[in-house]
Amino acid sequence: MDIEQPTEPARGLRSRLREAVRSTGYAAYGGGIGLLALATVPVGIVVAVLWFLRVGRRLVLPFLGWLRWLTDAERMRLRRLGHRIDDPVRVGEAPEEQALDSTTRREVAWVLIHGIFGVFCAAVVLQLLLITANDLTYPLWWQDVGPGEQLLLNGLLPARTDSRALLGPVIAAIAFVLWFFASPRLVAWQAQPGLRLLGPPPGTDLSARVTQLTATRAAALDAHTVELRRIERALHDGAQNRVVGVAVLIGAARRELQRDPVRAEEILAQAQDTTEQALAELRAVVRSILPPVLENRGLAGAVNAIAADCAVPCTVTIDVPVRCPASVEATAYFVVAEALTNVSKHSRADTAEVTVRLDAGRLQVRVRDDGRGGADPEAGTGLAGIIRRVEALDGHAVVSSPLGGPTELRVELPCGS
Ligand SMILES: Nc1ncnc2c1ncn2[C@@H]1O[C@H](COP(=O)(O)OP(=O)(O)OP(=O)(O)O)[C@@H](O)[C@H]1O
Ligand SMILES: [Mg+2]
After folding, report:
1. Where is the Histidine kinase/HSP90-like ATPase domain (predicted)?
2. Pick the residue with more confidence: 229 or 39?
3. Is the CB–ligand 1 distance for residue 343 below 6 Å?
4. Ligand 1 pocket residue status of 368, Cβ below 6 Å
5. Pocket-testing residue among 230, 351, 383, ligand 1, by greatest number of atoms within 8 A of Cβ
6. Which ranges constitute the DSSP H helices of 198-260?
7. Ligand 1 within 6 A of 374 CB?
8. CB of 197 closer than 6 A to ligand 1?
């Protein structure tokens, strides 16, 4: 069967018409986002003023969350339009850090520009279509409406005579041609502020990322050194001392062998005990490097085992459908182990809660207790060690523990999947 192919100009016109219709849809979508951006401006000003007056700190994070949602909606629109736009790197955890972060500043600038320019572009595209539809049909209905509504060109041009009314289709044709050719261009202009401000800024975010990676690399080396020192101390103070003891005992036993075989036997028994102790200590050191419980029972089993040993009743929720790299699992395990040891030792809590879940390729670990609060990473080595260990894997750890509680330790680790 032969299919009739459209002629070249017809195909060109058809695809251009499709493009104009598509652009109108995207312009309207961008206009909607622009209206939300416009509404965000006064809210942003109020939040900024309250924050400046030091009474609105609590409002900063929800506002930044909204800003992120809105800018993500625009990023999605730009991607659907066929643009490549990467998510910017965000640094900082505290509201102040996030609010002053260069990504946020650029997003605020986008809100201001898109709130005006994005809405304007959408309005132009939609007005051209509206004028086309309204003015084309004007000669048919202008006599049926009151003199106040006898207007062409979106209400700008009064037309109260037959000859004037015939201007309607002419204006409609011009508006249609303008819409046909200009709407793709207007959508391209409408995308510009987002393309310039919502991606990673050229250089700045990259340098923030480099700073962050340099810091975590230093932390990795640091954590590595601390870990080596800990293993060295454990071997030196434990197993090595015991083995030295064994050597001394065997020497003593040899000397006693001729003189007093019974005494030599006693000393050898003592040497055997010491050897067993050395072995137990070696086993403990090995376990502290990569706990075998992780190997045997996986992260879920291992975390449940620590929670079962916790002095405070502890609920565990684990949602990790796949296995993470061994280093990540081991770090998560040590995080939960240290946090629950702290809960038993310091918190005086009635209940504790451990949640481990894998979310978008990142392992989220949360340990919370309803105790007295006041955890301070600078007051001991446990929490500081956790933070260093997590940062060494390019993860993130936050301790929140106001006096009076509750205490929450949140850790996020990239899982590499
Ligand atoms: N869950 C908690 N509830 C209340 N206070 C806590 C909690 N966790 C830690 N703390 C406080 O924070 C301090 C620091 O904790 P960290 O784990 O760093 O050290 P530590 O437990 O005292 O010693 P270690 O180095 O053996 O872990 C603790 O001394 C304790 O006062
Ligand atoms: Mg501790």
Report:
1. 327-417
2. 39
3. yes
4. no
5. 383
6. 204-234, 241-259
7. yes
8. no
Q: What is the mean pLDDT of residues 336-358?
A: 94
| Inter-residue contact 199 to 88 (CB < 8 Å) | yes
Ligand 1: which atom is nearest the Cα of residue 409?
1
Amino acid at 181: F
Pocket of ligand 1 contains residue 388 by CB under 6 Å: no
Which ligand is nearest the CA of 404, by number? Answer: 1
The region of weakest confidence among 91-100, 165-174, 308-317 is 91-100
- Separation of CA 339 and ligand 2 centre (Å): 7
Mind listing the pLDDT tens digit for each residue in 364-388? 999 999 999 999 999 988 898 888 8
* Site of tokens 């339009």: 81
- Name the token pair of 368: 């919370």
Residue with tokens 């310039």: 196
pLDDT mean over 355-363? 89
Using the mean position of ligand 2's atoms as its centre, give its distance from the Cα of residue 348 in Å. Answer: 14
DSSP 137-150: SHHHHGGGS-GGG-
Other residues' Cβ atoms within 10 Å of the Cβ of residue 158:
13
The full DSSP string for 48-111 is: HHHHHTTS-HHHHHHHHHHHHHHHHHHHHHHHHTT---PPPP---SSHHHHHHSHHHHHHHHHH
The radius of gyration of the chain from alpha carbons, rounded to an integer in Å, stands at: 35
Q: Flag whether pLDDT at 417 surpasses 60.
A: no
CA atoms within 13 A on the CB side of 255: 5
Ligand 1 in contact with 316 (CB < 6 A)?
no
**Is there an atom of ligand 1 within 6 Å of 376 CB?**
yes
Among 59, 28, 27, 34, which residue's Cα sits nearest to residue 46? 59
398 forms beta bridges with 410
CA distances from 105 to 77, 97, 231, 315, 339 (A): 21, 11, 46, 41, 36
Residues 6+ apart with CB under 8 A from 415: 324, 325, 328, 358, 361, 362, 363
Nearest CA to ligand 1 atom 23: 380
In degrees and rounded to multiples of 5, residue 53 shows phi and psi of -80, 5
Residue among 335, 336, 342 to mutate when testing ligand 1 (max atoms within 8 A of CB): 342
